[in-house]
Cytidyltransferase-like domain-containing protein
Amino acid sequence: EPPPAEPPSAEPPPAAPPFSMRAALIPIPLAFAPRDTLPAWSSQLAGALEAALACSTLSRVYLYFCGGWAAAPLTKESIRALSIAYDCLPPAGAQLDVVPLLPSAGWSPSCLGSLADLSTLLLTEAPEACPETERAVSELAEVRRVANLPPLQTVVTPGGVPPPVMARPDAGNPDGYLEYARLAVGGTFDRLHAGHRLLLAVSALASAHTVYLGVTGDELLAKKANAQLLWPFEKRAAVAADFIRLVKPALNVEVSALLDPQAPPKAATMAEISALVISRETTAGGAKVVEMRKARGIDAPLTLVLVDLVGAASQSSDAMKLSSSLLREVEAVALASNVSSEDTKRSASEREDTQMPRETKIRRQDG
């Protein structure tokens, strides 16, 4: 007789989190003002991001900037520090979902406990080496204990090599706090990469109420290289808007499609929009929007908030840079290589089959 079945357990075992729901948190303790040419934390962060990339189960990394300037509203110095943070990503990590979390955007150690996908702590130094880190880690652990969540896996990572390309000086952005009730930002946002994330993070942190997010419509992208690989508008818009809300959950995000290259953007027609966030290479386009507002009789000023290119040798429009076009090209080459490899295997198999003696074919088919 078969053995009696075991009685079912009172509770089923918890399901393992899916790949897309695994995330790590890197606490970054800060000095009060980010004035150093190369912050001390850049080499530590580079090492931690290398460790994150080496772990195949991690698909998102939260950077928790704690203490110092991260508790104050955005400034041109803190924009530069965020640029350096994204430059710490190695080239292979261009599309890693790196999300900066700042106390000024409402993130405290207790709020970090609400991150359902968090599974790992990547520490750049032992917690006791820095009071700010030790306090944040201790409070996060207590929040998870009270919420009956499993403890986080903790890994202390070695330092790495700081990026060879650093963010340029702060020329162009105004002094003081960069905080605007309503601002605008636009782009294609295909295959969201580090450059997109920096642009969107600065937009979120500079806004106090609403971000108007303009996303290029599919029709305007039909002539792009490898256009067949472009994400559809709905996906590009959703991914960009979700990222803004993750950086600063209290914000309103209004998405619109950019369908006519001749039509003025909202920043040129809405007086209540007081800032436009742009990459430094598109300063000329931003200046044109300012002139369009004036031509329409809008006297309210429009501040241009400039964001550095990530991983670029310079900030000029013709500089080699990380781009969606490049990522699509890499994917197209990989797809073509896979197809070519499959075709080669199929042709070899067919040649082998035609050259094989009849009795051998029969034996092979019979197993």
The chain is about 35% helix and 15% strand. Residues 6 and 12 are 14 Å apart (CA to CA). Residues 324-365 form one domain. Confidence is low (pLDDT under 50) at residues 1-21, 359-367.
